[in-house]
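Exercise 7. Given the components listed, write out the predicted structure of the assembled complex. Treat all entries as one system.
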Amino acid sequence: MNQRFLYIIPIEPFPDAALIGPLGRFLSAAFGDEIRVQHVLLDLRAAFNAERNQFNSSSILIELLRSGPPDAVRMLGVSDFDLFVPILTFLFGEAQFGGKAAVVSTRRLRDEFYGLNPNPQLLQERLMKESVHELGHVYGLLHCPVQRCVMNVSANVDEIDAKSVLFCRSCREELRCRRSAQP
Amino acid sequence: MENKEIGILIVDDEASIRDSLVKWFRGDGFRVAAAGNAEAAMQLLVEQQWDIVLVDIKMPGMDGLELNRRIQEIDKDMIVIIITAFATVDSAIQAMKDGVFDYISKPIEPDDLNILIRNAVEKRRLTRENVQLRRKIDNLIASDYIVGDSPQMQRVLEKVAAVAQTDATVMIRGESGTGKELIARSIHSNSKRRYAPIITVNCGAFTETLLESELFGHEKGAFTGAQGSRKGKLRQADRGTIFFDEIGTISMKMQVDLLRVVESKQFTPLGSEKAVLVDFRIVSATNRDLEQAVSKGEFREDLYFRLNVFSILVPPLREREGDISILARHFLDHFAKSMSKPVHGISKEAMDMLNQYSWPGNVRELRNVIERSVVLCKNSEIGIGDLSFPFRFRSGQMTGDSIDDIEKAHIGRVLERTEWNISRASQILQIDRTTLYNKIKKYGLGNVT
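Answer.
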């Protein structure tokens, strides 16, 4: 039987390597997948938009799928680049809905981005929430109207802080069904 | 309305914009599709039902503003949001003039996009709800019709039709139970105010103080026990109709207050200093001889003239030729259906009895009699035995001069007096029970169970 590996791929340069270990343990508990951390050389030249000084998250997803480990059932790129899609000013993360790859950025999860003092614990918590949220989309979950559910949509850090790191009962059940139906 | 029931169509010539929006909305569970130009969008608009359309203003071929105009021609309730990378004041003004829901510059803040779509969905939901409610109201109006073919009722209905479309104040006169409230509702439901409420105030049911609070409403603490503020009936009737039932019973003080409201359409809730302006139509009803009340000084003449602009007299049931049978069958169908009983008709004898009765309680009494008879009926047809009502014949048809006529009337009176207690009636009449039963059967008298 094939092992189910969820790869965490830190997108270099990633300044907070210490965030990755706890994130891996939490994702393993949340999704029941075996976690592997792997550094991959990605060519992100096409993703960079000089005019906006941001990286196109959809292009990063394409690159992850192209260059990611071949035995990855799912993978999460963790970056400190400021992400965007053409219609929006920024994104905390993006996922391939019902697919294989997701990417999250710590750039706008940091308090210092908003002129505040660094808060590593809060950053860790926000990263966990956004990672679970994007991987939830990879599993096919939609945004959830329950405010405390991790699948509730967040357009700013206050909204991320207001929700829990956990799935609501209905999303948990949905995830269970989808997990049993997927590889 | 769940997100999956909302269809969002994205029209943009830039594939990356289309893709990112499709992805964004799909994550929220919306039904989403995208078109690269206005022509492809028109095709999708014709093929499927959409609720919100996001349109790029600058596209090759037909531009976003022109597409918006075309969409408005198809569905004026469609929510169109214009997106542009090159916002100009002129194009924004033009878009707003053309009735677009909003106008946004790209790139947009995720927060703003969420709020924009939430507002658009809410507006669409309200529009749909509004359409459904209007449809429901129209269906209710259609089913709440007035039954009656008699020339007397036809004249009443002609008057209703003539006055409904105007905003004239109407006074409905008639005996108790003739259906004055139904006439008032018919006036309201055929008027341009029909989508606003009709508020009924039963003036006879309140004391003077209570009626005042009921009508004008009150602020918190206006009087002992006023623990919260309350919107009065006059305010509830704003844009609709207020129906004053039993208007002849209101006190002189209330008449003064009401006159002021009727004249100015303005009033001050109890405990408030601020006057409230309302827009309502007044329909009132009474079974009292108001002219006599005016002449006795019990009803203000000025208020009488204000309320009695257009008068409708609802005839008593005994004067409505042929309507008793029609109404009896109508109520039979109604109650048989609501009680799920297989009662399909009324026997000839029972119908004759219904037609001979004087119906002092009018249509309301007939309705009650039929309801009771459907409850009692064990066959497919209501018979004499199922009818149960006080035994009074219509005066003039009450009896002839033969011994049988006199005997029939006398037995009927005794039965009525004893509330159909056969033992007591037979004692009074000094005949045995079997003879009494036989006579009841012979003369076709009321209910024997």
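Discussion: The helical segments of chain A are 20-31, 57-67, 120-138, 157-162, 169-181. Chain A touches chain B through 18 residues (CB under 8 Å).
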